[in-house]
Amino acid sequence: MPRLAFAALALLALAPAAARAQGPASTLMIGDTFHGTNAEAANFYSRAVKEKNRAAVETTVERQNHFLNLAKTHFKKSIGYEPTFDAFMALGQVNLALGLPEEARDACFRALEKQPGHRLARNCLDQALELLKIPANQRSGE
For the CA atoms of 32, 38, 43, 46, what is the dihedral angle to 10 degrees? Predict the structure, then answer.
């Protein structure tokens, strides 16, 4: 029996490394809870949304930018685990709010790649391109 317990503990210790080795979409089920990249992506996305919402109610530009930068960091981490439309779209909006049109353009374009023809993603990209002063007839995706 001690050998079996030792083997079980060894498997549990190696399971996280094995899950990471499977690639970016791997998950590990322990009990009724999933652990892995999808959970990490959701965790960072949730944090980012909270920071973005905190920025929306701040009254000073400094505090707004502080929370927007935190949101940006968390959205980028979420995308690193799972590059979703929602995360790219939100990152684009945060970059627009921070006055970073190049980064907003890239994020909004990636969102549009995920969901071609999406009206809000198209508007996000158009706003970024307008800030960059790129004429409409030279814009990508048209």
Answer: -110
Question: Could you tell me if 129 and 139 are in contact, meaning their C-beta atoms sit under 8 angstroms apart?
Answer: yes
Looking at the domain covering 61-138, what would its CATH class be? mainly alpha
- SS3 state of residue 116: coil
Contact 94, 52 (CB under 8 A): yes
Is the pLDDT score of 135 beyond 50?
yes
Rounded distance between C-alpha atoms, residue 95 and residue 128, angstroms: 9
Question: In the predicted model, is pLDDT for residue 123 greater than 90?
Answer: yes
What residue spans define the domains of the chain?
A: 61-138
Residue with tokens 């920025």: 55
Phi-psi region of 84 (alpha: psi -120 to 50; beta: other; left: phi over 0): beta
Mean pLDDT of 13-34: 42
**Of 133, 51, 39, nearest to 90 (Cα)?**
51
Q: What mean pLDDT is predicted for residues 40-47?
A: 93
For 37, other C-beta atoms within 10 Å of its C-beta total 19
